[in-house]
């Protein structure tokens, strides 16, 4: 019972953070509008409490929301699962189907993770010492390819899974028009692995936004090598952000996409 109350408080905390700022929501919509048009299919991998679902719906997208945490998935089903254009799947995404040991931070569920390496990196990093992953639970593990086979090919994929991003992309065998993945300065190697995977998959160009400001860092998209250099030069205090990737329109897999990161 104590864990249930702690989890409920953690979800309430996340809702206050992610739903309490209208200006932030407007910036989010403006950013995602670069990638998402009405009627598009979007995968939200690591939905947490669904603030991105809200943005994607405002832009007219159909959303497949994937979230492994039981408390967060229950909240998503209540908030969005009954809506016609949202499907909530309680699972994690990785390189192969099976089961994953999910490490849950009940007080701060936004940093729950399937990556033991992420927890180890956080334990050694300034500013992370008070975080505690106090529950472990086995959850179903799917792949992006299996999700695409079931739901169709998305126009955009958002990936935010606390150090598990490279594992998610390892389960994608064909390029998609556009996607984003979170990075942290405590695990730059994970972001570098994501960049390498995407450059193997197709002719991608990149941009980035720091933290939750939803503002692109570059006036024009850059190549993977330049993005890797930019990432390596960030101060530790930058903490986190998202890297956006768009397949060049000349790539046969782009399907005529006109998104600009």
Automatic annotation (TrEMBL):
InterPro entries, alphabetized: FkbM_mtfrase (IPR006342), SAM-dependent_MTase (IPR052514), SAM-dependent_MTases_sf (IPR029063)
Top-level lineage group: Bacteria
Gene3D superfamilies for the chain: Vaccinia Virus protein VP39
The protein's name in its UniProt record: Methyltransferase FkbM domain-containing protein
Pfam families to which the protein is assigned, alphabetical: Methyltransf_21
Domain Methyltransferase FkbM: 44-174
């Amino acid at each position: 019972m104590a864990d249930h109350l702690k989890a409920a408080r953690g979800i309430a905390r996340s809702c206050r953070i992610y739903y309490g700022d209208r200006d932030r929501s407007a910036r989010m919509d403006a950013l995602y509008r670069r990638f998402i048009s009405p009627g598009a299919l979007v995968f939200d991998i690591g939905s947490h409490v669904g603030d991105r679902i809200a943005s994607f719906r405002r832009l007219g997208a159909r959303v497949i929301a994937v979230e492994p945490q039981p408390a967060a998935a229950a909240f998503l089903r209540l908030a969005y699962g009954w809506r016609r254009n949202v499907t909530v799947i309680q699972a994690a995404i990785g390189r192969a189907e099976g089961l994953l040991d999910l490490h849950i931070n009940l007080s701060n569920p936004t940093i729950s993770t399937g990556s033991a390496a992420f927890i180890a990196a956080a334990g050694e990093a300034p500013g992370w010492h008070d975080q505690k992953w106090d529950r472990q639970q086995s959850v179903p593990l799917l792949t992006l390819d299996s999700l695409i086979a079931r739901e169709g090919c998305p126009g955009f994929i958002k990936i935010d899974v606390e150090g598990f991003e490279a594992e998610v992309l390892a389960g994608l065998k064909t390029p998609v028009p556009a996607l984003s993945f979170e990075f942290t300065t405590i695990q730059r190697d994970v972001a570098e692995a994501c960049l390498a995977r995407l450059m193997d998959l197709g002719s991608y160009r990149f941009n980035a936004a720091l933290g939750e400001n939803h503002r692109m860092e570059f006036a024009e998209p850059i190549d993977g090598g330049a993005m890797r250099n930019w990432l390596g030069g960030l101060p530790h205090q930058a903490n986190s952000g998202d890297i956006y990737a768009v397949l060049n329109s000349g790539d046969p897999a782009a399907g005529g996409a006109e998104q600009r990161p």
